[in-house]
Design a protein that fits this description.
The structure is a single chain. The protein is α+β, with helices and mostly antiparallel strands. Helices cover 20% and strands 20% of the residues. It contains nine helices and 19 strands. The strands form five sheets. It has a nine-stranded antiparallel β-sheet with strand order 1-2-3-11-8-13-6-5-4, with helices on one face. The protein has a four-stranded antiparallel β-sheet with strand order 7-12-9-10, covered by helices on one side. The protein starts with 7 loop residues before the first helix and ends in a 30-residue tail after the last strand.
Length: 412
């Protein structure tokens, strides 16, 4: 059976990603013109008028909470959409923080694995390049243009899809306050900003369909705030057979995934040139100071994604990601055993986890995941897992000679 059958999420992702012919965007929800699919969420006045919340809104560059528009989707309970709650000029301030401040060491970026001695202050380094060669500082090989993500707080391991107790840096106070006030307005009173990912997109960037499931508290909401170019955001269900809802995301807009929406598949198949220029106030960030940031943002989008990692009142678990064991049927099909770091022969296992039969010649991580080679199953090519792509059901082997349960592309 074709692994793509009933994968309606992937079908929609590919449709909106398509360049030729251009997709019809008439069915994409635009929260500036709410449709019958959208319901307005009314904020409790006792909350919005609270003095502490008013003070936090002021500090974060937000308008008074009583003036926010907050929407929900009838088909996706637990999802909230807040169209641009920021005051004039504060988009600029948040873009500055994301580009100039948050990439500083010891925060981790995608560049670190390839450039161990990368500059701590990436933006300052880019400004030196801009001064010496203003026409090429944003070329494809410049570090600032190659920057794809920065992690804050608990640093997410993209390869193994885990957090580590000892790999953590302080969460910026500005981020903590921003998500904290949004959480309070939506009555998520126990929410703690413990891990963040700042994503840097360009006009040709995409984010494939995935769920966020590595946190230890999957009941706490996810917060997502975007600046710069527009995007199409897809929000699906708990499996890929649910056709996702498509919506425009514009500069300053915030999204919250909670409740049933917390574990929903989501993706960004397309970044679009912005159709709206946010109002600015030169008293916040002057036009002169903003100019290099504006040059970068002409073809870029910045997304700040914040989540809670730990359960309220609990520390980091002693055994955070227990290794699954195999059934006797699988074990019989997958012996003898191999050890982490060894070359893998078909059918070997590590730490009780079978290495997928097609992963011949791969090496094992300490968690027993096979990785590092393109996978094939009796001649059938199977998608490779990398830190930058999310595996899907099309990666399943379908050979009759494989172990008892079908093996998805590992690290999915």
């Amino acid at each position: 059976m074709d692994g793509d059958v009933n994968d309606l999420f992937k079908e929609e992702f590919k449709r909106y990603k398509r360049r030729k012919p251009q997709p019809d965007l008439s069915d994409v929800i635009d929260f500036s013109e709410p449709s019958h699919l959208v319901q307005e969420y009314v904020v409790d006045s006792n909350i919005s008028d609270n003095a502490t919340i008013s003070q936090l809104c002021e500090e974060c560059g937000l308008r008074a909470a009583s003036s926010w528009k907050i929407f929900q989707l009838s088909s996706r309970p637990g999802f909230y959409y807040i169209p641009d709650p920021f005051r004039a000029g504060h988009h600029r301030q948040w873009v500055q923080r994301c580009l100039r401040d948050y990439p500083h060491l010891p925060n981790v970026s995608n560049l670190d694995a390839h450039i161990p001695s990368r500059p701590s202050a990436l933006w300052d380094d880019a400004m030196r390049q801009r001064k010496s060669n203003p026409c090429s500082w944003l070329s494809g090989d410049s570090l600032i243009q190659r920057l794809r993500w920065v992690t804050l707080g608990y640093h997410y391991d993209w390869t193994k899809k885990v957090y580590y107790k000892g790999k953590v840096s302080p969460m910026p106070d500005t981020v903590d306050k921003l998500c904290g006030v949004m959480a309070k307005v939506l009555q998520f009173d126990q929410f703690q900003s413990e891990a963040g990912i700042v994503n840097f997109y360009h006009l040709d960037s995409t984010l494939s369909g995935h769920t966020d499931h590595s946190e230890f508290d999957l009941t706490a909401p996810l917060f997502s705030i975007s600046f710069g170019q527009d995007a199409i955001f897809l929000l699906g269900g708990h499996d890929r057979s649910t056709r996702p809802v498509a919506m425009f995301v514009r500069s300053g807009d915030a999204m919250v995934m909670s409740g049933a929406a917390r574990m929903a598949y989501h993706a960004v198949p397309r970044v679009l040139p912005t159709s709206v220029t946010p109002p600015h106030d030169g008293d916040v960030v002057s036009d002169e100071e903003w100019r290099p940031f504006a040059e970068y943002m002409e073809s870029s989008r910045v997304n700040l994604n914040i989540r809670q990692v730990l359960k309220p009142g609990e520390g980091f678990p002693d055994n955070p990601y227990p290794v699954a064991t195999t059934s006797s049927t699988e074990a019989a099909a997958c012996s003898p055993a191999c050890s982490p770091g060894e070359s893998v022969a078909a059918g070997q296992v590590a730490d009780g986890v079978p290495c997928a039969a097609p992963a011949v010649g791969a090496t094992l991580s300490n968690e027993g995941r096979c990785h590092g080679v393109d996978l094939s199953c009796t001649g059938q090519t199977v998608s490779r897992c990398t830190p930058d792509t999310n595996c899907d059901t099309s990666s399943l082997c379908t050979s009759a000679t494989e172990p008892a349960s079908k093996r998805p592309c590992l690290d999915a």
